[in-house]
User: Fold this.
Amino acid sequence: VKIALFLAGYGHVARRFAQLLHESEGALAALGIEPVVVAALSRRRGAAFDPDGLDLGAFERRPQTATNDPAAVARILDDMRPFPVRVLVETTTLNIESGEPAISHVRAALAAGADVITANKGPVAFAYRALADEAARAGRSFLFEGAVMDGVPIFGLVRDTLPAVTVTGFRGVVNSTTNYILTAMEQGEAYDTALARMQQAGVAEADPSLDVDGWDAAAKTAALANVLLDANTTPLALPREGIGPSTAARAVQARARGRRLKLVASGTGHGASADLRVALEELAADDPLAILDGQANALELQTWPLGRIVITQRDGGLEKTAYALVADLVTLARNRSMDR
Amino acid sequence: VKIALFLAGYGHVARRFAQLLHESEGALAALGIEPVVVAALSRRRGAAFDPDGLDLGAFERRPQTATNDPAAVARILDDMRPFPVRVLVETTTLNIESGEPAISHVRAALAAGADVITANKGPVAFAYRALADEAARAGRSFLFEGAVMDGVPIFGLVRDTLPAVTVTGFRGVVNSTTNYILTAMEQGEAYDTALARMQQAGVAEADPSLDVDGWDAAAKTAALANVLLDANTTPLALPREGIGPSTAARAVQARARGRRLKLVASGTGHGASADLRVALEELAADDPLAILDGQANALELQTWPLGRIVITQRDGGLEKTAYALVADLVTLARNRSMDR
Assistant:
């Protein structure tokens, strides 16, 4: 089936996704999926639509001008109506206080009868229950595999491979920047030096507060809690700890005791009473979360009847997040074929 | 949909599976699945069939007599023909030199138009390609999630959540008995003492050769290689190492160097040229396979484009294997509904 894609947000992840669609062309064709990017929207490059398939090279070469056309998303969704299968690929920059503009984009797409795939944490962290309901009413998919642990299929694992399993809790190391800095500080590096090195390497952002203040981990905790524990919460509602210069001494002391200091995202319980937090925890050396260095992430699920299952992503990188969008694309095509 | 089940093999796993069906009744009903055990076959209790649902309590109270009626499986499959959805639940004891009698049971079921779910390693380790082809021709499911890593959905993970991913290799700690004994020996216990203790605790069999000689790990390696790497091999064709009294010194020395000695099942490459083995390997302390104690199992998948993904089962137990059969039951119901 031909699937018309609208890339809302055109940063590193969206570009790598477009590339990965080409690299995976054969595998997708074998699954009956023929994706075509027909529209894109970028903060700096404006909006573009071409029903015959957008020339992304030309789009990238556009002069960068700060444009902000609030009507652009609705207009593009309207332009796309002739396509029977339309998909919003949401990868805009997240406002951590509101989850916008992604939430509005998702809502507009579902209302227009399009499916939604996103690597953005905002919609699932701030508005999961409402958007899932809207998707169900519209008979469309709302998928967000890339929101947590990049390409590792954590939501797909529970949804597709663990039927009749009850998830009673989770704990994970889900933010790479803080994990890098904690590892460096254990080895004696000062916080500022480690952070500066991470920024030079492109691992940490110029403004690292989203990572080091624990906001990114809190958004992922809210996302996991909303989907797995039906918590209906937001990142703003969680107890949240970050890392800073004073964390160095704790990291060194833990290591000296044969333990590791990690920023752990966790949740137990169910619904509104679920106990959720992002906190520094000292872990035993053989804890599956303790052995993670650098970009590695891991999540432990506490379940009935399978007990504790851990899934670990040992290698990081942009193409992992981009892959999550490819996996979502296949899932939505499967959902569509089941509805037929 | 009402699903008629035939339990071929009635040991611990089959009994726990029957119990788990009751415990999961609500969750299965929500998925539209209504399982009914209508037949059972046991080496010591013979065969039983009741179209209204078998009384398993009465079956268990039967006098134990060594019966071996080679025509029983065919007769029961014939008796079950009035049911539109019939499933063979294969959990007989494996002959490690042939994969029988499970392979014959699977073949008979597919030929009779039944679906097959099994926790038995034999069929997938010895005859995967042939049986998968027979299942495809019959339009039926051949599922075996419990063959490797108990309830952790390793085959489901790749099949359902990693579309368009290429698996280029794997390595895992997949046998609990050898892992228990290696851990005990690291701490100074002698091989014979550790083995005897495991036998008393019910972890190791009275005849432990399947485990300690590496046969169980070899069967799982063949199963993984056949499904993930298209190797079309058998456990007999693999280089295979086990553990014994002389392994103790190596385990202690590795630990003294801050490393861990583990029995590792591994495979890389593709098809007939895939490089497969079961071997003792000394691992770095922060290797996800090195941290496993006792019943914990883990498998690392090497993939494109996701890099290395590890899935770890921290808790063991019979109900984990039984759950794999429940997951297979849901998968076959999904396959059936997609075919409609």
